[in-house]
């Protein structure tokens, strides 16, 4: 009996060992991730493309048939990036389940050829005269006023100064050919009564020198005489000037700029360098 019991025990032990060995040799039930990478335009294989499992930092190269494969992966979600020279990189998220294989097809688009960005900087207008240099400094400061630059004036050389001002300077309007304030009709800070005529003419300076102010019309008795005093901007050629600036009242003019505008605004004209 003892011999028989020993034989049975040995048989059972051998069976258990055999089963364990068999289980050890059986393939592990892990998911696999594979696929192909092709060119979108014609479905040709993108040989040498890099398929990168970013989550695990593992790589697989695409073979000449366009195929790739990852094995020994644990179930879960993975971030994938497919890269190839001359193609737009593509990203994807895959979810792998235990005991199941996942196969994907990735079509890459050809990256458009781009030229290096060329930055060009226009030459800043360099003036010799202190007056025009001051004009450019005030225009660039953004501290108030309304400006018409030399480039705009050159673009409108076939027009009159009046036409350019109409569309670019607020706070003014025209009474016939003469520039007047659109903020009020009468000159001066305080009025004794209602205006009988629109006489808030804008003061005009040329290269910083006062050419006209509204008070100069106080003793004028007729229109003919008025025309000899007030600058007619419809007759002034744009090509003579390199800059225009306007301030609605003396308070808004920069410190140091003389302004006798009678509350009607000041227009400064800067002549072009020859």
Written description of the protein model:
It is a single chain. The chain has helices at 2-25, 130-141, 150-155, 161-168, 223-227, and strands at 32-39, 50-53, 58-61, 67-70, 76-83, 90-96, 101-108, 146-148, 172-175, 178-181, 203-206, 209-212, 241-247, 266-271. The longest helix is centred in the first third of the chain and has 24 residues, at 2-25. A hairpin with a 2-residue loop joins strand 11 and strand 12 (209-212). 20% of the residues lie in helices and 27% in strands. Mean pLDDT is 80; it is low at 20-27 and 119-123. The chain folds into two domains: 32-108, Sandwich (Immunoglobulin-like); 130-271, Ferric Hydroxamate Uptake Protein, Chain A, domain 1 (Beta Complex).
Task: Write the SSE topology.
Layout: H1 2-25, E1 32-39, E2 50-53, E3 58-61, E4 67-70, E5 76-83, E6 90-96, E7 101-108, H2 130-141, E8 146-148, H3 150-155, H4 161-168, E9 172-175, E10 178-181, E11 203-206, E12 209-212, H5 223-227, E13 241-247, E14 266-271
Parallel strand pairs: 1-7, 11-14
Antiparallel strand pairs: 1-4, 2-3, 2-5, 5-6, 8-13, 9-10, 11-12, 13-14
